[in-house]
Amino acid sequence: MTMIERLRLAALVVAASAAMAASLCVTPAMAWEPTRNVEFIVPAGTGGGADQMARMIQGIIAKHNLMKQTMVVINKAGGAGGEGFLDIKGAKGNPNKLVITLSNLFTTPLATGIPFSWKDMTPVAMLALDEFVLWVNADSPYKTVQEYVAAIKAAPDGQFKMGGTGSKQEDQIITVALEKAIGKKMTYVPYKGGGEVAVQLVGKHIDSTVNNPIEAVAQWRAGKLRPLCVFDAKVLPYTDKIAGDQSWADIPTCKSQGLDIEYVMLRGVFMPAGAPKDAVDYYVELFKKVRATPEWAQLMKDGAFNQSFMTGADYAKWVEGEEKRHRDLMKEAGFLATN
Amino acid sequence: MESIGDLMGGFAVVLSWQNLLYMVIGIVLGVVIGVLPGLGGANGVAILLPLTFSMSPTSAIILLSCIYWGALFGGAITSILFNIPGEPWSVATTFDGHPMAQKGQAGEALTAAFTSSFVGALFAVIVITLAAPLVASFALQFGPAEKFSVFFLAFCSFVGMGKEPPTKTIAAMMLGFALAAVGTDTVTGQLRLTFGSTELLGGFDFLIAVIGLFGIGEILLTMEEGLSFKGKAAGINPAVVLQTWKELPRYWVTSLRSCLIGCWMGITPAGATPASFMSYGIAKRASKNGDKFGTGEIEGVIAPETAAHAAGTSALLPMLSLGVPGSPTAAVLLGGLLIWGLQPGPLLFVEQKEFVWGLIASMYLGNIVGLVVVLTMVPFFAAILRIPFAIIAPVILVICAIGAYTVHNNSFDVVMMLVFGIAGYFLKKCNYPLAPLVLAIVLGDKAEEAFRQSLLISQGSLGVFWSSGLVATIMSLGLIALFWPFLSNLYGRVLTPALRK
To answer: What is the CB neighbour count within 10 angstroms for residue B9?
Structure first.
């Protein structure tokens, strides 16, 4: 504790002196600024995609002195992230609290009945969308989606194993959609983290995954995994060579390969309900600055993210549409909480 | 050998004044973090991570990994002095470390703990240096069934070895399993045993349970027995380190065995906590002083500490070569690697030679620096026991409360810690062992998850646990360990007379 305080103090001193320097040369005074440390809640464990992004943002803000106060990342992973969202729900009007979302914003209340929804929060900004790719082991005989689908169709139900992160969350939703498209059951094996899922596929304990690009890219580059298709509407824009002469842009969309499934995951930021408009505007500007840094550009490239950015009414409308879509998808899959 | 050349290159990278300074700062911070229960290595590293983004990746990883080494060292201190494990993997160190302190041998226990930690870490680093690719491919063979078999072995090597009746051991373990089941079930995504309470969503954190059961429980017991430490306080004796060192080589077999167990558990990756428990359990079986374990045997300090450090160090290997963290701290470091633009995975060793070998070189140096730092502090740590209990107890209580709060920044955890403390007091009074309870809380949900994943993959057939040579061997070892008292009894009764004839 004393150490944290000391660190916070040190960070404060650094931030304050930086802010003084900044005020001398550049910016005119902003309308609103955080009055104390800003808590950035991660409704997931350490080391996952959301956690990485939150810590990256924290690092970028510290490095480029984008905020006078310190940003503190706090993981509240309990109840599939419900713990983190309930914390935001209970902090009505608090302008110094943010939360980064993954799909559990929609899936957790639907699957577990933990009472929260995005309507209990103030949307700030969509930072990016995370892609999903269908992966198989590079040693497997399946070079295309068609070959893999044909193999699943030929085998008995449950023969092919799909590994994924968590239960009744994005990976399993995609798996169910896949089963529906193919007309055969697969065995879904839930793991705790995406990196683990990728390694289980390399070790041939499972047959395929729908890992996010950043979770599997290292194994792809090493020639251990093979991407079959990406679950987005259009091919990825990143043309740097990754494995051999292949780039992200060379992976076809699943739709073009006869699998009519689209899924992207929100990486967005919300605040407690009743947050003042000035505060929301402040954070939107802050995230715009974060997105303009070279570190952010590199992260987007490494993880082959879809770089959509939305704020305000557009963002809220998008989130509303996604919530409805998740409700439909999960209802179809039989994942809704019964109570 | 190519790797030796690479390692020398790594030393060249690390040996700058700036990096050495980071190393010392890291170790000292790490020891402080390790001493404070709750503020674990993972939290410490996570807090400091953003501060390192402006450094070069090599300096940053040196600073952060040294915090990690420091925390590994520091966890032993409170375990030995106050019976309060500062870190999960030092629970097993309390079993003999604290009785030693009660006998007035705190200095010896600390020296043994620190030295064993160093030996374990050194062994693990050498394994990493020489066999990184080989080891990485071994780790790939571990699917859910293999993981379950490792947990099974950890439990089995622990059952039936306490002084307490086996029924009480099993009762305590089952209570631990029940507590571990609270929260979100990974396999179905459903909430279990939360009774609609928001606080229980995340389940019982192992650290909170340990701080309460051991820390608070111990204070309550000591209060009842008249506000003083049982046994003698140690005198301040600067020569204690050297005296203990003379004794240590005698236990080389235990050390070597613990190193192997530790490396194996770190790489698979199961982590430092099961490694320390398993190593302690097996040492107790194998040692001719096994009966005296739990009363302050130095071997009972060497075994868990060596294994924990070997595991903690080798846990970094799967993180670097596969991108799978072997421990919570490794998970945070993994996030750091990605942020610095390094991609952990099979190619890291090829593409980022300077970074990887710099890190490995820093493991060698960091541990040496760490050993020197903590050993010089041994007499001071031991002297803490001379402070009257009436003064130190409130301090411990406050540190425990702060520690419990820090785990999740949640004040409900402090209440939970107190409840665990009272429970720990009654369990001890009724002669229920706490260790199996703790072991089950730590590994219960992981073991369950691996078990159910295995059955999903095998579509319900238990044969999956004997489906390959690797998993069958580990499962069989587990069964042998479980029935060992019975088997050795049989051996004594049937075979020995037969041989005599």
So the answer is: 15
Percent of all residues in chain B with a pLDDT value above 70, rounded to a whole number: 93
> For chain A, what percent of residues have pLDDT higher than 90?
71
Token pair 């408009």 is at which residue?
Answer: A277
Q: What is the ipTM of this complex?
A: 0.85
**Considering only CB atoms, which chain B residues are within 8 Å of A295?**
53, 339
For B166, the domain range is 2-500
Rounded CA-CA distance A245/A241 in Å is 6
* Helix spans in B141-239 (H): 144-156, 166-180, 206-210, 217-224
Give the sheet arrangement for strand A225-230, strand by strand. A187-191, A161-165, A208-209, A133-137, A225-230
Write the class of the CATH domain A2-130+265-333. alpha beta
CA B108 to CA B37: how far, in whole Å?
22
Which of B452, B453, B467 to substitute to test the interface with A, most A CBs within 10 Å?
Answer: B453
A108 → chain B, closest CA residue: B189
B256-265 tens-digit pLDDT: 999 999 998 8
**Within chain A, which residue ranges are assigned CATH 3.40.190.150?**
2-130+265-333
Nearest chain B Cα to A51, which residue?
B335
Identify whether the C-beta of residue B279 lies closer than 8 Å to the C-beta of residue B231. no
Please, where in chain A does CATH 3.40.190.10 lie? Answer: 133-257
What CATH number was assigned to the domain covering residues A133-257?
3.40.190.10
Which residues, at least 6 apart from B286, have a Cβ–Cβ distance to it below 8 Å? B253, B254, B257
The domain total for chain B is: 1
pTM listed for this prediction: 0.86
* Beta carbons within 8 Å of B105's beta carbon, 6+ residues apart: B234, B296
The answer to whether the CB atoms of A62 and B334 lie below 8 A apart is: no
